[in-house]
Design brief:
The chain is built from two helices and no strands. The protein is mainly alpha-helical.
Length: 84
């Protein structure tokens, strides 16, 4: 989870860097700098969204695992078999 947090922070920083480049390009009339900034910003947003999806999928998988483990324990208890 720590790696995901660091990746998300890097993505946010790259979004900011892209936005700064894009706005600097707009202010100076430098179309290439503006385009580079827009691309960097967009790529960082997509990576950030993918990181969020990956985090959500991991959480859902953990929830399913916990639910299955709980169901197995309950079934064992109901059958009087507490051995794992």
């Amino acid at each position: 989870m720590k790696g995901i947090t660091i990746m998300a922070l890097e993505d946010k920083l790259n979004q900011a860097k892209g936005a700064v480049k894009e706005n600097a390009g707009k202010l100076t009339g430098d179309k290439q700098l503006q385009a580079e900034g827009a691309v960097e910003n967009t790529v960082a947003k997509v990576k950030d969204a993918a990181t969020n999806v990956a985090d959500d999928v991991k959480k859902a998988a953990d929830d399913v695992k916990d639910a299955v483990d709980g169901a197995i324990s309950s079934l064992k208890n109901a059958l009087g078999n507490d051995d794992k």
